[in-house]
Amino acid sequence: MEKIIIITKDNQIKKRVEKTLANKFEYEYLEDINYIFNFFYDEIPDGVIIDMQSQDYNLFNIVNQIKSDPIFGSISFVAIINNNQSFPEVDKIFIDDYIKIQDIETDLVFRIKLSLSKSRRITEVNPLTRLPGNISIDREIQERLLRKEEFAIAYCDIDNFKPFNDKYGFGRGDEVIKATGRLILNIIKVREPNRSFVGHIGGDDFVFLMTPDRIADASKAIIDAFDKIIPTFYDIGDKEKGFIESIDRQGKNRLFSLMTLSIGITHNRYNQFSHYGEIKEVASKMKSYAKKFKGSCFKIDERRGLQE
Length: 308
Fold this sequence. Notes:
Layout: E1 3-7, H1 11-21, E2 26-30, H2 36-42, E3 47-51, H3 57-68, E4 76-81, E5 97-100, H4 104-122, H5 134-146, E6 152-159, H6 161-168, H7 170-191, E7 197-202, E8 205-210, H8 212-229, H9 236-241, E9 243-247, E10 253-257, E11 260-267, H10 276-290, E12 297-300
Parallel strand pairs: 1-2, 1-3, 3-4, 4-5, 11-12
Antiparallel strand pairs: 6-8, 6-11, 7-8, 9-10
């Protein structure tokens, strides 16, 4: 069931919207939009219904900030307006649709579904984590290269995820993936709200972009948090032993340690890249290098002259 956040201070509108959405969407209520990112970092919703009767320009600015973010831009925004209200600057407010108060009971569900359907057609996100997928990742990297923007890219991979998934099943494996995505998003966005990007390549692989000077601190925080939460996904006996018995890629039973995280990082401070594939390849190789070390770790490529 799709998740919707309702933003309004009007209790009557809240009641009408909740009654209309009941059994059709999962929803949560938020009174102050300034706290909306707390929701996003925990779980990215499918859509937002926002009361815009007040014509509050701070509210407009926050909506535009969200819709301009490459991570959150796919979230659909449906505005509730007064029956006699219009948007004189509609081209400057990045909502996806609007509905008048008098039409909440008759048209709101249709407007939300139409907005969500349109968003899915024009954006590409991973269905499990709601993070941008491969097409969006490549586009974001290429645009930064074309702007000659200095940035760092990190590739993340969960070690020993497949044996965990094989033993405990896809349901628990999906929970690990979603928790890892939330963890990375939260840590990255807290440290760099505006210039960062987090994407989900697929499976247990993630990518994040930051300014070079901040990426080491963020990577350490991600690893520390990952190592604290990951044991909770194991049964008590396996957690106490520190390993599980599962099947390797050759079909043989083996002992596997608890999951860890390997992060490979590179940047364009010393080396010029013209194509997203070039810088991604270096980051991927650094990830492979990090996987050679025991336990969770990150490795940064500081070599110069890679393109010479």
